[in-house]
Amino acid sequence: MNTAPFIAVEGPIGAGKTTLASMLSEKLSLSLVKEIVEENPFLDKFYDEKDEWSFQLEMFFLCNRYKQLEDTEKKYLHHHMPVVSDYHIYKNLIFAERTLEGKKLEKYRKIYQLLTEDLPKPNVIIYIRASLPTLLERIKKRGRPFEQEMDKQYLEQLINDYEAAIKQFKESDPPIPVIEINGDQEDFVISEAVFNRIADQVKEYIE
Ligand SMILES: Nc1ncnc2c1ncn2[C@@H]1O[C@H](COP(=O)(O)OP(=O)(O)OP(=O)(O)O)[C@@H](O)[C@H]1O
Ligand SMILES: Nc1nc(=O)c2ncn([C@H]3C[C@H](O)[C@@H](CO)O3)c2[nH]1
């Protein structure tokens, strides 16, 4: 498995994952794997009533990512074609641990374990760290209707969950490099120099 470089861009909601993954894909000729958002039938329901829809939503994300990563292995990695994705499969667990509890969380953990054990895993992670005001500003700018009443506490918790997950990830899997970006200050959209520096760092791992 993973016969080619696989780079995953991660960070909390609105950090700029899709933006950066798309820019890297173009600059470094990497195949792009992007999250399915608009076709998600549970996302707007979830933001309206989290407790009611969380299990359906987490299962939907898990099954979609499972299929996408299965295809990614077959279509690209297996054929030595490098890939950049705008998520790491582990984000399922970061979100599910926050949105589920009790029996549903127990079931979810088991299914997650079963489904993800054979999936290709990224060998480089780019982590965009960003503060609550930056995320809220970007979510507003992007303008998806169902995200506009985003609960600040939920977003703040996810920022902390991501920090904890990345810290744990670095400790438990030190051979996998984590390129960390300060999303409040290092603006790869506005500054070509900032973007080129990130791209150069990534290039080290794909050549
Ligand atoms: N560095 C940046 N500077 C300014 N605006 C940015 C930057 N990065 C992304 N944006 C804008 O912020 C919004 C969110 O970006 P994007 O969709 O890439 O985030 P994301 O992390 O993929 O979000 P999600 O978690 O919802 O999938 C978009 O409108 C994008 O154009
Ligand atoms: N609950 C939950 N679980 C996930 O695995 C997950 N992945 C992404 N999202 C939300 C964030 C953005 O609103 C939108 C696009 O990323 O979808 C998730 N929400």
Please render the helix and strand layout as text.
Layout: E1 6-10, H1 17-28, E2 31-33, H2 43-48, H3 50-75, E3 83-85, H4 91-99, H5 102-116, E4 124-129, H6 132-142, H7 152-172, E5 178-182, H8 192-206
Parallel strand pairs: 1-3, 1-4, 2-3, 4-5
Bound molecules: adenosine-5'-triphosphate and 2'-deoxy-guanosine.
2'-deoxy-guanosine binds next to helix 3 and helix 4.
GO molecular function: ATP binding; deoxynucleoside kinase activity
InterPro entries: DCK/DGK, Deoxyribonucleoside_kinase, DNK_dom, P-loop_NTPase
Organism: Bacillus licheniformis (strain ATCC 14580 / DSM 13 / JCM 2505 / CCUG 7422 / NBRC 12200 / NCIMB 9375 / NCTC 10341 / NRRL NRS-1264 / Gibson 46)
Can you describe this structure?
- With 207 residues, this protein is an alpha/beta fold.
- The protein has one domain (4-202): Rossmann fold.
- 56% of the residues lie in helices and 11% in strands.
- The protein is built from eight helices and five strands; from the N terminus they run βαβααβααβααβα.
- It has helices spanning 17-28, 43-48, 50-75, 91-99, 102-116, 132-142, 152-172, 192-206; strands at 6-10, 31-33, 83-85, 124-129, 178-182.
- It has a five-stranded parallel β-sheet with strand order 2-3-1-4-5, sandwiched between helices.
- Helix 3 packs parallel to helix 5.
- It is globular and about 45 Å long.
- The two termini are 18 Å apart.
- The mean pLDDT is 96.
- The chain binds adenosine-5'-triphosphate and 2'-deoxy-guanosine.
- It holds the Pfam family dNK.
